Amino acid sequence: SALRFVLVLPALAAFGEKRFLDTTPVQIKEFGAVNKIDFSPVSPYNYAVTASSRIHIYGRYSQEPIKTFSRFKDAAYGATYRDDGNLLVAGSEEGSIRLFDVSGRAPLRQFDGHAKPVHVVGFLSDKYRIFSGADDYSSNLWDIPSATEIVSYSEHNDYVRCGCASKVNADVFITGSYDHTVKLFDARRKSSVMTIEHGHPVESVLLFPSGGLLVSAGGRYVKVWDVLKGGQLLVSLKNHHKTVTCLCLNSSGQRLLSGSLDRHVKIYSTTSYKVVHSFNYATSILSLALSPEDETIVIGMTNGVLNVKHRKPEERKVKSQKKRQPAYRTYGDEEMEDTKTYKKYDKLLKSFQSSKALDAVLEPPIRLYSPEVTVAVMQELHRRGTLRSALAGRDEKQVNLLLTFVARRVIEPRFTSVLVTVADIITDIYQPVVGQSAIVDRQFLRLQEAIGKEIDYQEELLEVLGMMDALFATFTKKRATCLEENRSNGLTETIETNMNN
Q1: Are 51 and 32 in contact (CB under 8 A)?
Q2: Domains present along the chain, CATH in parentheses
Q3: In whole angstroms, what is the distance from residue 33 CA to residue 387 CA?
Q4: What is the pLDDT of residues 420-460, one digit of tens each?
Q5: Three-state secondary structure along 62-82?
Q6: Of 92, 180, 316, 427, which is least packed with CB atoms within 10 Å of its CB?
Q7: Cross-sheet strand order for the sheet of 213-218
Q8: In Å, how far are 61, 285, 292 from 28, measured between CA atoms?
Q9: Which residues contact 157 (CB under 8 A, 6 or more apart)?
């Protein structure tokens, strides 16, 4: 590590809506061009840096590596953490793939089968399989326990230089190639299930966490595709002046980052796909990564320099000592205190962000334990006339979540009137895509079954009510007759008694 040095630099810009400290950004010199940076998904969020023939593990605030993996004869590529943070996999120039335990040093497994350098490696979401892509044009799938090859796909016509795995489906992974194509593979099939033409050599790909949107980068372009619609192009972004080399999403999925050989990192809003911020660096960028909490951004450059910046801690707000009278306003059927600390969904409603407000109340804590809040927001959006737009444009996972909630809660009398309207709008919007997703189709059937059962139940109740009305009417009539007879008998007896007297 004698070649490593540290320089403190001023901050370049704000990231998203939060600023990074202008006193802590550092530059760390690596032994070669930094081809991959990957943060561990578990605390304390160390990150792996692949450069030259080494993989260095850094602590978030460390300026020297806390661990090094150097069992490579030549260059190492693409070191990637598993979802539990316990294992690390990397490709190599000699064509082999090595699997490391982050607490050890020697490789746990070595996978041999590629004939040329392996630049792409990663774990499928089941954690027991690895996918890879190499310069021999092949994309392979490997079994970790047995260290054997499961299947090899030879569908690309040029180097395979990027890839990612679905977090939703454990059998799906994606590769991008210099043959200008992106291919989606399903481990249960013998060939790719989708091919997307990017139009330029593909340098980086990523999937949104929901699995419905795919982003590809190559040439000067960043393109967003709708996987659920068969790879339909949604937007093509051309904001860089040279080749885009890397992509990254922030933890909420609201910001997309792209790095380029033009020395810039562009930050896009994923709602409008407009550039909201830009960083400028001294050298061409090969890799970038954000920590899981968006607290640290690390940039890897062609000259072997790592640039690390940490987000500025939010200043504590000084509470006002002045007492203010609580003001109240009516929202749906709830009365809420109008204070400075609004709920997340309330803030989004105040700023007319309908879709995000609906997303906020579909989060598990609210959806599962306070469904009345979710339905109240849906009712408010319907009153405003924005419910249709809030429900539209959602991917497979989100539609599945909506249908699950509606099917489960529509039978509750307090929610029925609102959720029947929601179900009608969802059906109208997503009817054209019925048959394209087994998950969504299954939820539509569940919703149909739930509503059908409720209708049958209501009909049975009406029949029972009809019978009960008839029974009550008969009972009332009989009771009245008995009373009249008793009164008549009593009156006669009285008269008779008086006469006797």
Answers
A1: yes
A2: 6-310 (2.130.10.10), 328-455 (no CATH)
A3: 49
A4: 888 888 888 887 777 888 888 888 888 888 878 777 777 78
A5: CCCCCEEECCCCCCEEEEEEC
A6: 316
A7: 204-207, 213-218, 221-226, 232-237
A8: 12, 14, 21
A9: 137, 177, 179
